[in-house]
Amino acid sequence: MIICKTERELEIMREAGRIVALTHQELKQHIKPGITTKQLDEIAEKLIRSHGATPSFKGYNGFTGSICASVNEELVHGIPGSRVLKDGDVISVDIGAKLNGYHGDSAWTYAVGTISDEDQRLLDVTEASLYKGLEEAKPGERLSNISHAIQSYAEPLGYSIVREYVGHGVGQDLHEDPQIPHYGPPGKGPRLKPGMVLAIEPMINAGSRYVRTLADNWTVVTVDGKNCAHFEHTIAITETGYEILTKL
């Protein structure tokens, strides 16, 4: 069941989303060669808690981090630890914050130092695909129009859409209905209505679309070892379009 939020609920979710955006803004200043993913995690947790929220991911199904920190060929769910970031790496940082019972959720992929032109193009295309999807986020439109727009943009440019992980509704639960693939035909699924809150999060690989999970049962990597990117915003459907909740 897709839960449409009231204006009171949306007010809370705007603030949860703002805290997520502030955390991204802070971490961006620290993502440099020499820092560990654990240090980034500690910075994020401190900031989230300083605003009266809690990290959505910490303890979620046993996850130990406050953020997901996924480097290079790691797609999602990277566990923060002793890994030291190096010049030329790319790191996807997924952040969730829970405030007064409601979540905000956003992921961004960052360059560490100077990255290759190939990796920069991967990041640019993945970010652009997110906004291509959001262009279809309008009341009355079918949900799969978002999915189709992302696929139609990224695949002709030579990139692969990951099938195993999808966007989702957000609210009192971090993952609510509906599930939102980032591929597929248009004109399918439920019609969008004002008050729906959705996390749209294309995950795109430079090589093949196939991924696997490492022995830690969390970290997802590309099968071919090529780099990948992940961009995500939480949005609310409005009377005329959409509102991004996870930006300043």
From TrEMBL:
Reaction equation(s) it catalyzes: Release of N-terminal amino acids, preferentially methionine, from peptides and arylamides
Residues the entry annotates as binding substrate: 77, 175
Cofactors, names only: Co(2+); Zn(2+); Mn(2+); Fe(2+)
E.C. number(s) listed in UniProt: 3.4.11.18
Top-level taxon in the UniProt lineage: Bacteria
Chain ranges passing through the membrane: none
Entries under Gene3D superfamilies matching the protein: Creatinase/methionine aminopeptidase superfamily
Keyword check for Protein transport: no
GO BP, sorted A to Z: proteolysis
GO cellular component annotations of the record: cytosol
Cofactor binding, note field: Binds 2 divalent metal cations per subunit. Has a high-affinity and a low affinity metal-binding site. The true nature of the physiological cofactor is under debate. The enzyme is active with cobalt, zinc, manganese or divalent iron ions. Most likely, methionine aminopeptidases function as mononuclear Fe(2+)-metalloproteases under physiological conditions, and the catalytically relevant metal-binding site has been assigned to the histidine-containing high-affinity site.
Keywords attached to this entry: Aminopeptidase, Hydrolase, Metal-binding, Protease
GO molecular function: initiator methionyl aminopeptidase activity; metal ion binding; metalloaminopeptidase activity
Residues holding a divalent metal cation 2: 105, 168, 201, 232
CDD domains noted in UniProt: MetAP1
Subunit description: Monomer.
Function in brief: Removes the N-terminal methionine from nascent proteins. The N-terminal methionine is often cleaved when the second residue in the primary sequence is small and uncharged (Met-Ala-, Cys, Gly, Pro, Ser, Thr, or Val). Requires deformylation of the N(alpha)-formylated initiator methionine before it can be hydrolyzed.
Sequence similarity: Belongs to the peptidase M24A family. Methionine aminopeptidase type 1 subfamily.
Protein name per UniProt: Methionine aminopeptidase
Native species: Alkalihalophilus sp. As8PL
